[in-house]
Amino acid sequence: SVEPGQIVQPGRALLSLALAGPTQLKAQVDERFLAQLAVGQPATVVADAFADQRLGAQVAFIAPAVDAQRGAVEVTLTLTQSAPAFLREDMTLSVEVETARRDHALTVPLAALRTSPDATDNTAQVLVALDGRAQLQRVRLGVRSLQAAEVLEGLQAGDVLLLKPGLRVGQKVRVREVSASNPTHTAQAKGTQGGAAGAAITNTMGR
Q: Which fold does the domain 24-98 belong to in CATH?
């Protein structure tokens, strides 16, 4: 920007013009998630400098080509609300795109999932407390979020999962409740199977 009467050098940009209409945002999304993206998907945007302000957005355009150097695809999002006064051009933003959603889902934390040689993309194993011992249980998975996974088969609501590192299959365990400040040893499968209540799980992808 310049002031009236100021001397400027040739080739210097004096001002920038912005198109009228909804505010648009650009995000670089890892190409691994390309198949999950679609125009119209809802998103949440947070400015790093204003982390307590969450803005609603929507996927408006997905670039037809992938940036080979970055391994990313450019996604254009449109704000679904008026742009706040603090939003500035070139500001660093974090974006979460909702690619799928399940209500009344049976969910487990991602930390509970274990891989096996014969596992597929939608199967895993979890360690559960059964008759006082640690036992492996195969599960079939559905939608995943950044923190949890939907379980389609293999568990019921209330099953106790063992998260403590180093536990062996067949080892005796004594389950006890832990406080919210120390939740790393056990967890429960949350939600219902076909009931009216349960957890909602949203598959999101980050910045």
A: Elongation Factor Tu (Ef-tu); domain 3 (2.40.30)
Domain ranges of the chain: 24-98, 107-190
Domain 107-190's class? mainly beta
β-bridge mates for residue 74, sequence order: 28
Number of other residues whose CB lies within 10 A of the CB of residue 173? 20
Q: How far apart are the first and last CA of the chain?
A: 30
Query: Angle at CA 88, nearest 5°, toward 85 and 94?
Result: 100
pLDDT tens track for 8-67: 888 888 877 766 678 889 999 899 888 889 999 999 999 988 989 999 999 999 999 999
Q: How many angstroms separate the CA atoms of 184 and 165, rounded?
A: 9
pTM as predicted? 0.60
CA angle 91, 61, 149 (to 5 degrees): 80
Backbone angles phi, psi at 3, to 5 degrees: -105, 150
Tokens of 1: 């920007």
Closest among 151, 162, 154 to 198, alpha carbons compared: 151
Distance CA 55, CA 84 (A): 9
Task: Report yes or no: 33 and 41 within 8 Å, Cβ to Cβ.
Answer: no
